Amino acid sequence: MESELLRQQDAFFQSGATRSLAFRLQQLRSLLNAVQTHEQAVLDALQADLHKSPTEAYSTEIAPVTAEIRHALRHLAAWMRPRRQPTPLLHFPAVSRIIPEPYGRTLIFAPWNYPFHLLFAPLVGAVAAGNCVIVKPSELAPHTEAVTLRILAEAFDPRHVAAVSGGPEIAGELLKQRFDKIFFTGSPAVGKIVLRAAAEHLTPVTLELGGKSPCLVDATVPLDVAARRIAWGKFFNAGQTCIAPDFLLVERRIQEPLINALRAALSEMYGSQPQESPDYARIINDRHFERLSGLMDPARVVHGGQTLPAERYIAPTLLAPVSPEDAVMQEEIFGPLLPILTYDTVEEALELLRRYPNPLAFYFFTQDRALRQRLLETVAFGGGCQNDTLVQVSSHSLPFGGRGQSGMGAYHGKHSFLAFSHQKSVIQRALWIDFAFRYPPFRVPLRWL
Ligand code: NAD
């Protein structure tokens, strides 16, 4: 049974209201306006939900969204234009075009870790592509959910874009309805539920999932810089980042110096008492706090390890030596625990990497060109960086997405527009000439074909 909201959105879409460039630009401007108006409320909500510092919240939640909107405003006219393509000689005279078309009724699910960014960034693509949208914010970040609802209500007519709030039950109800495109960000387990439900209606799906993203470090890099960039990427949002380095794979002879460099980087960033740092986030809820505490084997803690259950605080923690058999290596960590594994030969490192499903991200710190080439050719992953962490996510020109267990499809910049568009291929033929040889009875010798 279709909901009243979906019926209204369907009628709105069928009316053609979302088709024009002018409408889409106006809606994107309206969204930009509403986001800017509620900027402080968004920062407060992220502080309340995750103890995100205003700087971190602004740079990873608000700025990426406003940048996506501005990028779309600048390029949308070009993205929407039908693209002329070459026509095979056989079909001459003719003109071939690809016409990007909105899917129609779309559904976006957001997770709780970047609850603002990961809802609004795909929404920009959906609106730019001319769709109607229902968004389902994460119920686990309730303050951000509340301000999200306010922004959406202010920016959009609900027949065009509306939010439905609730947990798995409501999400399940939504998934029973027929959408023309579903965009899901979340865990691989729920991703499977979404894909199964979408199969019922043969709805195309983009899945932005997670996994264990490895970070390899060899002895050719300056360890102080590597340690700063790793600690920054891992302990941002207290490790609750889908593309955070999940574990380190370190050339054995630099294990000790790298641990020392990581300790130094952590104390520069968060001081000797990270629970007092305004820049260090908290774990989202008690369930995740307990799960993470359970993964912390005290015998392996070489730095950190302290917890404050009342605040859901877990110190930035280094674990070493860790083996692939340890509990912390059996699931995506999604928290501030950094296991350190070692390797002696590149073969050994590659063999370990092959044990895990394709990760969303892969990082490698090396100045060895041959190793870089080998890693790029042999490790399958969504996206990543050489000599840094996380920064691949902030480029409009790089499609962001996983492969295999870490997802399917991609977005950001023009790729978001494409994720929410069907590419309609059309050949426009001329009528002034018509060759008889194409029609039966066929007389053309096979060797001419
Ligand atoms: P989650 O899968 O639990 O929830 C995501 C969304 O699905 C939420 O809106 C939630 O309400 C909904 N949901 C939960 N259970 C459901 C069910 N049974 N049926 C239908 N919908 C349901 O994920 P999460 O805990 O919010 O986020 C953490 C996960 O997301 C991690 O695995 C992380 O790596 C991944 N993630 C991926 C990206 C990415 O861009 N690839 C970004 C952030 C997080």
From TrEMBL:
List each copy of the Aldehyde dehydrogenase domain by range: 17-426
Is NAD found in the keyword set? yes
Gene Ontology biological process terms, A to Z: aldehyde metabolic process
UniProt GO molecular function: aldehyde dehydrogenase (NAD+) activity
Gene Ontology cellular-component terms for this entry are:
cytoplasm
Catalytic residues identified in the record: E208, C242
Keywords linked to the UniProt accession:
NAD, Oxidoreductase
UniProt cross-references to SUPFAM superfamilies, sorted A to Z: ALDH-like
Q: Gene3D superfamilies recorded for this chain?
A: Aldehyde Dehydrogenase, Chain A, domain 1, Aldehyde Dehydrogenase, Chain A, domain 2
PROSITE patterns assigned to the protein according to its UniProt record, in alphabetical order:
ALDEHYDE_DEHYDR_CYS, ALDEHYDE_DEHYDR_GLU
Q: Does the keyword Metal-binding apply?
A: no
Q: Which family does it belong to?
A: Belongs to the aldehyde dehydrogenase family.
Q: What is this protein called?
A: Aldehyde dehydrogenase
Please spell out the taxonomic lineage of the organism that makes this protein: Bacteria, Bacillati, Chloroflexota, Anaerolineae, Anaerolineales
